[in-house]
Amino acid sequence: MLFRDAYLFLALLERLRSNDNAVRDAAEKAYKDAQKAEPGQVLTALAQCLDPSRCTDTVVRTQAATLLRRACVQVGPDETVWTRADAAVQGQIRLGLFQAVEVEPSQQVRKILVSSIAVVASQGQAPWQELVPGAFVLAQSDNESHKEAAMRLLSELMGTTYTQEIVARRQELGTLVSTGLNAIALQPAAMDLVAEMVSNLEDDTLPALQQVLPSVETALKALATSNPSAFEEALTSLIECAQEKAVFFRPRYAEWVEMMLAFAAAKGVLEDGMRSLAFEWVGTIAESRAKALAKAVPDLPRLVLETAFAFLAEVDHDEQWASIDEDEEKDDDEGLHEAGEAKVDFFVKKLGFAQCGQVFMVLLQKYSESGRWEGKFAAAMAIRAGVEFCSDARTLDTMAALLLQLLQDPHERVRYAAGFALGQMCHDQEADFHERWHAKMVPQLLVATNDPVDRVAAMAANSLEAVISDLDEAVLAEHAKQILNVFVARLTSCTHKGTLVAIMEALGALAAGLEGSFEGHYDQLMEMLLAFVSKPDGNAKLRGKAFECISLLGFSVGRERFMAAAQSTMSAMLATPVVADDVQTECIREALERMCKILGSDFVPFLPVLLPGIIQGVS
Fold first, then answer.
1. 69-101 pLDDT, tens digit each
2. At 6, is the secondary structure helix, strand, or coil?
3. Which end of the chain is more exposed for a tag (fewer CB within 10 A), N or C?
């Protein structure tokens, strides 16, 4: 099919937009056949559809511009429609694209056209001689649409073989950027151009570029109120600049930190995503220029931690929160509090607890005593994020005491956060901390495993596992009876999967820690665990953890005592289908390795059944 008749081609474009699958499929085949047979005619027909005087429908011009761009994009080694067209057609298309940009009334279509020009510029061996001069002709126009298109095109060309030719016209480029930053309609394109220049130009050009920093600040503040979507795009571009050329902002670090933290604090004015991006910019600069940033902003620890704590406290009440079993479904409770926790972790690590510690503790006290559950939640989660970097015993003791207090708070989210933070604290700290606090932590966490809210109880059991894992056998023996009484009661009465899994993990840690001292508790627990694994249709992860716990109990009591239970356990394991990337299968594999060590030569009778699966897994 040839497209010498414009009406035929417009009809084809209409069929390509059809909601009827059969019509659209036939049109796509006809279009692909035409691209192969007459690439030059297809490109020419698309270019003719870009003329608003011929084609008044914006939808059609958008479609034609998009198809033209796709026809020029190089994907893989194959030729494109553009590369198969002859040089005369290519020259007409280049000229036509600039003409289309000049007369196109739609900003969306102009953006696609500019992108098409950049794609065409990347094709072929010979440079496009008229490209950069054409861009600056647009830049010198009194028409703001032309200036915007020029800036977007120059942005696209940064980092290409045309960069040096653009930079050679430094005075014109500077005038364009200055004009763009000071005109509201042009600010988004100007911000994008500045970002691309910073990212792609050599470092020796930075001093000249840094002169526009005050204008960029003014433009960014204007975009925050006038054009939210462009503001968000600008923040994203500025973060990329900060990653690649943080030194660009150095002359005005203090002003930029103040501005970005003001954006981050603009609750109710800016969307949360934009506020988070603004805070991310500060973190990005700190990642590579922490010392220089701290020198320019002496109060940096206070400023960033105040913002991070404020983010942490922006947690919403959720009626469904308590009913979520984290072992069975993902909690989609995402928001600024997660960004706040990440930033506490980042800044305390980056700046050091010696620099942040005093401010950190003042904020802990302020938020924990705020009277609002959100503030107490923030305090607990801040400890979870920052405790890894604290080694001062007195400070750690203050944190631990606060968490145990919050573990008894009336609000379930606060109790959960306190338990979460206690578990993290126990993982992060050394033996001397455990020696000071086990006598207080174990009893209170055991009480918390009976919390009326199952999610809180599960988290308390997880934290108890962290405590148990780091205690010596002699100390564990002191708590063993109390722990086991609670665990047995919960295993017999609880149906919440997350709580049961957490208790089994803690029980396994207890068995491993009480090696040789578990005899008195073995029979009752083994009977309960075998009941869990005897149900092949039970929860897979729960069965897997039960298998794991059984092997740990066996390791604790030794081969002779474990032998009877081993027979039943192996039967249940062998009856369980092997599933790739499955928690239960992985738990069974680890349990089998442990049981092999426990049973020694008595494991041999099981090998004929196990070996085919092992060989299949290896191969």
1. 999 887 666 788 998 999 999 999 999 999 999
2. helix
3. C
